[in-house]
Structures are given as structure tokens and as C-alpha cells.
Design brief:
The structure holds 2 protein chains of 2 kinds.
Chain A: H1 3-18, H2 25-54, E1 58-60, E2 63-65, H3 71-78, H4 80-114, H5 118-129, H6 136-141, H7 143-147, H8 152-159, H9 174-198, H10 202-210, H11 215-226, H12 228-243, H13 247-252, H14 260-269, H15 273-297, H16 300-305
Chain B: H1 2-18, E1 35-40, H2 47-57, E2 60-65, H3 68-77, E3 84-88, H4 92-95, E4 104-105, H5 117-120, H6 137-140, E5 142-143, E6 158-159, E7 162-169, E8 171-173, H7 175-178, E9 197-200, H8 203-216, H9 230-245, E10 249-253, H10 256-264, E11 270-272, H11 275-283, E12 289-291, E13 297-306, H12 312-325, H13 329-335, E14 340-341, H14 344-347, H15 353-359, E15 369-370, E16 376-378, H16 389-393, E17 396-399, H17 406-418
Parallel strand pairs in B: 1-2, 1-3, 9-10, 9-11, 13-17
Antiparallel strand pairs in B: 3-13, 4-6, 5-6, 7-13, 7-14, 8-11, 8-12, 15-16
Helix pairs in contact in B: 8-9, 9-17, 10-11
Classes of the chains: A mainly alpha, B alpha/beta.
């Protein structure tokens, strides 16, 4: 036995000496989930219960009063604003989802199947992620001087003679909101899809091609089904981001459109907590139902484990 | 900045020399261990003011700047961690009666008889009664007793807070881009400026600005613009929806910087605005006017109140700080943002004669006028928009407000913004 081996053996002995009595399996798995469970219970479940309770409270200008009233929900559902907000947010979510999916899928496909060396792939991934080194707020606001009436883009178009008057729709419009969302969230699509694609055995693609499948058939019969998990995860990320957004809509629509959260914040600014809590509950339930629906289409859990 | 500090130091020296009150007046041994935490909005909770107070008073003053709703929240939920509430008078509606603040006995305040009559009596110096639309200072400043939990309808010996800052707000315009003179609030909704106007995205202030415009164009009549009835809110919001659909508004701003950028970039040529934002646009060398309008101004004020938990030495220190706060340094500092002090007389000693003439007298600037941070904001030879102090503050049409129907207003405002 060499000296080094001896040291290792000694260390192993010592460790064995310190060892706790073996835990039963169930205790071990409880212990493993407990850090995440504690975080979720304390920072998510308890606050959610709290605002569920507050959403039934009564209130006036000087305070909130424990009660069990449905008034806040009645107000919420009877205001046309609520329906408009959900329709408008869903519309943004669908458009942004479709665009980020197409762009994200193609970028991921390119990175995984077209880039041949791992080094180049890593560099390209880093380039995709580089904008994330600055904060989302800055990436949002940076569009304003670019798209404005006297902004860089309009001036360029006027300068090269394509238009004679600045295009107003570029900023403080739905267009501006969507372009910013796409810019912010495409990477959320690229990541999970690329991850799923990387797991596809290249032999499968070769086999498909050898069996005479066209490029399109390979795509629809092999790559897309096998990337389903990534597509679903990316979709959930993009969807929840758009539904919960406050800042982008406010900045880029110039307050012309509102988001669910910005309406909620107007209520909070007016110190109206119970209706704000009711709006928040509705949003949580709505997003949870949507996400559950997506999870039903693709069993993400099974796919991740297998 | 260097200039500012030099001037601040000079001003401090002058104060000591002329003895505006001879601070500090408490000589307790342990005074240097006292720290007062002053919480207010970014436009008034300014660090150099706290630094100067700390230097003059012998105890420590710390500033916490917080934006509106968060500030109110902090007062309501963490009042024992703060000492000084620097708060908009319309917010007193949320704070009085909730054991957050205590009243100031008039006898403790040195400058009540020098305070402008707009606050002490609700009158202008020439004896005219000032508007009581919205939340007028006279309706909230007096408290029934020392606990300060109820507002009095007529003068008493207790104040819910001392009035610290005031101004009349109006529309900001880009005179180089409007193409015609702007003289009325109605111009905010004039088709001439379609797609080039903006509003503040806040129900309480935004709706009053539009109400001024609607009333002046004869579309809606109000009993009290600052405290609308439900039908008045409905009528106003319905008109606003129509105006919004016609494409009148370019944007709704929710922060100071946004309002500055909208104006500076020319996205917007007429909008509701704050005086320091106009100053900020002009400091960039871009023409911007805080345009006086024939209907008058939307007035507002801030008060300065002790939190309920203060007592003993700390309360004495608060009174000391309160009297220092009104003695001129702070008033001079905010004068350079375009705001007025509740005790203008004291401010005069801390401004150069040229500054006093420009900011308070509405006279032609004899030297370049600097902003609070030492940058040139007005060249010699120009005059302040709106003229002298009383030409502006003597024409308040309505005060900022929190309406009785604010619950309904918030709902309808959300409808307007989402339409």
C-alpha cells in the first residue's frame, strides 16, 4: 500500500466513524425535498393563502377589515376592464409565443444540428446570452430612443428616403410591446429546446435519412416529437413571463395598453389591497390552469425522467 | 455640485452670522446620539438638506426617499421605524386617524405668523378666499388636539403638520413645436395636438387635469372637480375614453424621468408635468415652458409631521429640525427646483438677490440661474414662466386630491387605461 492510498483509507475510516445512523428511505427523500419545500411554502404558499384571505376582506380608505365578502370578486368580474385586460394579455402572449417559438426553434436547431464543433456552439450560445448581462429594464428602455418619433430608426428611414414623415406606430404601440417581448424572451425558448434537441441521438436522424425520409419528414417525425419537452417548457416560460409582465407594457405602450399586473398596481397605489388581492388570485388561478393545460398536452415530467 | 456645496456652506455661514434662530437650541449632553429619520418623496427628501441639518443642529438627520404608494405604505405599516413624515397633504386623508402621526402645537412652531395666509387662513394676501376644490390645505392642516387624530374645520392651536413646500402645477409645453400659443387647459384635448399629448398615469391627478380641460371647453360642469360625484366621474371617464380612441394621447407617464424624456425627445408637445421636470428639460438646452393658463393652476402642498411614537428628547429634536426646516436653507434648495416654501420670507436670506428676483418675484434674471445641482437652467435676461409667487399661487383653481369616491374612480381609471 502506498502512502497516498493509506491516507485515503484513513480518511475513509474517519468518515465512517462520523457517519449518522442510516436513515430510512422515506426520511431521506423528505430531507432531500425539504429545502425547496420550505422555500415554496414560506415564500409562495403562505403568501398566496394570505392574499386569498385578504381578497374577501372589506376595506375603505383608512384600512382593511376582516370579513367574508364576495364584493371584490363581484367588482372584478363585472368590470369590462378585467375582460379587456385578459384578452389583451392573452393576445400578446399568443403572438409573442408564436414568434419566439419560430425564432427560438430555428436558433436551437441551428446550434445543435448545424454547428459542428462544440467550441463554436459554446461561443454562439454565449453570444445569445450576452444581452442578458444587462438588466431587463435597460434592454427594454433601450428600444425607446431607437424606435421614437425622432429616434434612430425613423431618422435612418427618412435619411435614405423611404419615408417622408416619421412612423408613429413604432413606439408607444402594440408593435413596440411585441418587439420588446420577443427580444427579451426568445432566449427562454432557445434554452429548453436546444437542451431537448441535444439529447436526440444523431443516429436516429441518420437512420431516418437512410430509410428515405425527406428533410421535412425528419423534422416533423423525429426532431419535433423529440423536442416536445423543450418546446413545452419554453412555452410555459414565455407565457408566464408575458402574463405577469408589468414593466414592458407600461413602458413600450406608453401606458396606452395596460397589463393585468399594471391594473393591479394602480389598485395598490390607491391603497386598495382587497381588490388587488382578488385580481392577484384570479391571475394565479388563470396562469395555473393554462400551465396545467400545457403540461397535459406533454407530460414534461415523464419526458425529463426518461 | 462643487458650486452647490460652496453656496450651501456660505448660506450656512450667513445663517449662523445673522442668527435666524441660533441653532442648535437644545443643549442636552446626549443630543449627538439622536438620529431622526425623515421619509419623503424623491423631490423633497434630498440628501444635501439632511447633511446641512446634521451640521447645523448637532444631531443626525437621515433621508429616506420613497415613491408615492410605497411611501404611504411605509408610513402606515412601519411608522415606528420613521420619525418625520414628509407627505403630500392629500395623503393626510389616509394617515390622520390611524395613530401614525401626532399634531404639532402651534406654540412650538416659530414661523406660523410668517407662513403664507393661503395655509393659515385659506386666503390670498389681498383677502380673497382661495379655492377649496380638492384637498385644500386649510381643510386638513388644523387638528382638534395634540394627538392629531382628527382634523378641525376651523383654526385651532394644533397642526397636523407644518406646510413645507407648495406649488401650482400646469401644463408643460414645447413652445418651439406647438406651432401656436397655448393659453387654456382645453388645449390638452385640442385636436391640434392629436397624438402629441400625454397625461400622468395616476387616477387622482390625471383625472383632474382632464377635468380642467373638459370644464374649460364647456363639455362638463363640475360641482367640485377635486371631489367628483359618481356621475361626474362617469361623464369624465366617458369623454376621456372617446378622446383616447381618437388618438389624442401619445403616452401616459408614471415617473418623473419618463415625463422629461417624452418632452425632451419631442414625442409629446403638451402634457401634465412637474416644475422640476420642466427645469430638467431646459437644462438640456431644449425649450420647455411651464405654461400659465387662463383657468389657473392645480395646487398642491407637502407637510412635515412628527410620527406618533416620538416623545421626550427625540420629540424636542423633531421640533428643532422642524423649525430649522422652515428657516430658509431647505426653502432655498427647493426654490431652485421651482418649488415654493410655506415661509417665503425666510428663504430670501438664503438666495442671491438675482435668484430671489427670478424665482419668487418673476423678474428678469440678472445673472445665469442655476438648478439645485449647479447646472445653468436659465440664461440671464429671461423670466420665469407664470410670473411672481402670488401671480402663480394666487390663481389656484383646484388642489390635488384623494376623492371620496376614490374606490369607484380607481375602477373607472383602469377601464380608461385598458381601453
Amino acid at each position: 500500500m502506498s502512502a497516498a492510498q493509506e491516507v485515503i483509507a484513513q480518511q475513509a475510516d474517519r468518515r465512517r466513524g462520523w457517519r449518522l445512523p442510516a436513515l430510512p428511505d422515506w426520511a431521506l427523500s423528505w430531507l432531500q425535498v425539504s429545502p425547496l419545500a420550505v422555500i415554496l411554502v414560506v415564500l409562495f404558499a403562505l403568501p398566496t393563502l394570505l392574499f386569498l384571505a385578504v381578497s374577501f376582506f372589506d376595506y375603505d380608505r383608512t384600512g382593511i377589515y376582516p370579513a367574508f365578502l364576495f364584493d371584490n370578486y363581484h367588482d372584478l368580474f363585472s368590470t369590462p376592464a378585467t375582460w379587456r385586460l385578459y384578452v389583451s394579455s392573452l393576445r400578446f402572449a399568443l403572438i409573442v409565443w408564436a414568434i419566439t417559438l419560430v425564432i427560438g426553434f430555428n436558433i436551437a436547431h441551428f446550434l445543435i444540428f448545424h454547428v459542428r464543433t462544440a467550441a463554436v456552439r459554446t461561443v454562439l450560445f454565449l453570444l445569445c446570452a450576452a444581452p442578458f448581462w444587462t438588466s431587463g429594464l435597460i434592454r427594454t428602455i433601450a428600444w425607446i430612443p431607437f424606435l421614437g418619433r425622432n429616434g434612430a430608426f425613423n431618422q435612418m428611414l427618412i435619411h435614405i428616403g423611404i419615408i417622408s414623415h416619421p412612423l408613429d406606430f413604432l413606439l408607444f404601440s402594440d408593435f413596440a410591446v411585441i418587439i420588446t417581448y420577443v427580444h427579451l424572451f426568445t432566449l427562454l425558448m432557445v434554452g429548453p429546446i436546444a437542451n431537448a434537441m441535444a439529447k436526440i441521438d444523431p443516429a436516429l436522424l441518420e437512420a431516418a435519412r437512410d430509410a428515405g425520409a425527406s428533410r421535412w419528414a425528419v423534422m416533423t417525425n423525429v426532431i419535433i416529437p423529440l423536442s416536445k419537452t423543450g418546446i413545452t417548457l419554453g412555452s410555459i416560460l414565455v407565457f408566464t413571463q408575458v402574463m405577469g409582465d408589468f414593466f414592458v407594457v407600461k413602458q413600450m405602450s406608453g401606458g396606452q395598453s395596460a397589463s393585468i399586473v399594471s391594473a393591479l398596481s394602480t389598485e395598490i397605489s390607491a391603497m386598495q389591497y382587497p381588490p388587488a388581492a382578488a385580481s392577484a388570485m384570479l391571475l394565479v388561478v388563470f396562469v395555473a390552469v393554462m400551465v396545467a393545460g400545457m403540461m397535459r398536452i406533454v407530460d414534461v415530467r415523464r419526458e425529463l425522467v426518461s | 455640485m462643487a458650486k452647490l456645496t460652496r453656496r450651501a456652506a456660505l448660506a450656512g455661514a450667513t445663517a449662523a452670522a445673522v442668527g435666524t434662530g441660533g441653532f442648535p437650541t437644545i443643549w442636552a449632553q446626549n443630543i449627538k446620539d439622536v438620529t431622526l429619520i425623515h421619509a419623503g418623496p424623491p423631490v423633497t427628501a434630498i440628501q444635501p438638506i439632511a447633511d446641512q441639518a446634521t451640521k447645523d443642529l448637532g444631531f443626525k438627520v437621515q433621508m429616506q426617499k420613497v415613491e408615492n404608494a410605497d411611501l404611504l405604505n411605509r408610513f402606515l405599516s412601519q411608522s415606528s421605524t420613521l420619525d418625520v413624515a414628509d407627505v403630500s397633504i392629500s395623503y393626510l386623508r389616509y394617515l390622520v386617524g390611524r395613530k401614525v402621526l401626532q399634531a404639532v402645537p402651534l406654540a412650538k412652531y416659530k414661523y406660523w405668523d410668517k407662513t403664507i395666509p393661503l395655509f393659515t387662513k385659506g386666503e390670498y394676501p389681498d383677502g380673497r378666499k382661495a379655492s377649496t376644490d380638492g384637498i385644500s390645505p386649510i381643510s386638513v392642516l388644523y387638528a382638534t388636539d395634540i394627538t392629531g387624530q382628527k382634523q378641525a374645520t376651523s383654526p385651532t392651536d394644533f397642526l397636523t403638520g407644518i406646510p413645507s413646500i407648495t406649488n401650482g402645477d400646469t401644463l408643460g409645453i414645447r413652445p418651439d413645436l406647438t406651432g401656436r400659443p397655448v393659453t387654456s387647459w382645453a388645449d390638452l384635448i385640442s385636436p391640434d395636438f392629436k397624438g402629441k399629448t400625454a397625461l400622468q398615469d395616476s387616477p387622482t391627478i390625471g383625472i383632474i387635469d382632464v377635468a380642467m380641460a373638459l370644464e374649460s371647453s364647456g363639455v362638463v360642469k363640475y360641482g367640485n372637480k377635486g371631489n367628483m360625484t359618481k356621475p361626474e366621474i362617469d361623464k369624465t371617464i366617458d369623454h376621456m375614453l372617446e378622446i383616447k380612441r381618437s388618438g389624442q394621447f401619445r403616452s401616459f407617464w408614471s415617473s418623473f424621468d419618463q415625463s422629461v424624456n417624452l418632452m425632451a425627445s419631442g414625442e409629446v408637445v403638451i402634457q401634465s408635468m412637474w416644475s422640476p421636470a420642466v427645469t430638467a428639460v431646459r437644462t438640456r438646452g431644449i425649450p420647455c415652458t411651464f405654461q400659465p393658463l387662463k383657468e389657473g393652476y392645480r395646487g398642491w402642498a407637502y407637510t412635515f409631521s412628527p410620527m406618533a411614537h416620538l416623545s421626550g428628547l427625540k420629540l424636542d429634536c423633531f421640533y428643532e429640525y422642524m423649525n430649522w426646516y422652515s428657516s430658509g436653507f431647505q426653502g432655498a434648495f427647493i426654490a431652485r427646483e421651482g418649488y415654493y416654501s410655506g415661509v417665503p420670507e425666510n428663504v430670501k436670506k438664503f438666495l442671491t438677490p438675482a435668484e430671489w428676483d427670478y424665482w419668487y418675484e418673476g423678474k428678469v434674471a440678472t445673472t445665469d440661474i442655476l438648478d439645485p445641482f449647479g447646472k445653468v437652467m436659465e440664461k440671464a435676461g429671461n423670466k420665469r414662466d407664470g410670473g411672481s409667487f402670488w401671480e402663480r399661487m394666487g390663481k389656484i383653481a383646484v388642489w390635488n386630491s384623494v376623492m371620496d369616491e376614490d374606490r369607484y374612480l380607481t375602477r373607472r381609471w383602469n377601464e380608461f387605461i385598458t381601453a
